[in-house]
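Researcher: Quick test of sequence recovery. Tokens follow.
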């Protein structure tokens, strides 16, 4: 007699482990793409600094620094706003629907997804 994960632990376990696998793949891919983009951006700035050093172009590094800092700050603010909005939606959903097995699926799925995503980012 074979026992699969769904018959032993129920559907929430299948959602958790399935989302964890998807999260791992996403995390692994995101880290690989981020590494490639970091190399490309680094080479671009290295080339720009070389051309500035040789006098071929004139770069206002203070303006580059200000623009970069503003873009990073804007991205962080948007990420925080999205996370806060999502947390409020989950809180309202759980409060209005009551807690049962079906109501826990989104929470179980997100928990598995985030665990897999973090593990994929570490291994990538």
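Model:
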């Amino acid at each position: 007699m074979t026992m699969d994960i769904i018959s032993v632990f129920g559907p929430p376990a299948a959602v958790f482990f399935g989302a964890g696998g998807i999260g791992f793949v996403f995390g692994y891919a995101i880290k690989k793409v981020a590494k490639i983009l970091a190399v490309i951006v680094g080479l671009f700035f290295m080339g720009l600094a070389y051309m500035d050093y040789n006098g071929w172009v004139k770069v206002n590094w203070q303006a580059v620094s200000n623009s970069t800092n503003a873009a990073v700050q804007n991205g962080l603010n948007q990420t925080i706003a999205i996370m806060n909005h999502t947390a409020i939606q989950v809180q309202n959903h759980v409060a209005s629907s009551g807690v049962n097995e079906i109501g826990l699926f989104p929470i179980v799925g997100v928990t598995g997804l985030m665990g897999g995503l973090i593990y994929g980012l570490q291994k990538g």
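Residues 11-53 form the longest helix (43 residues).
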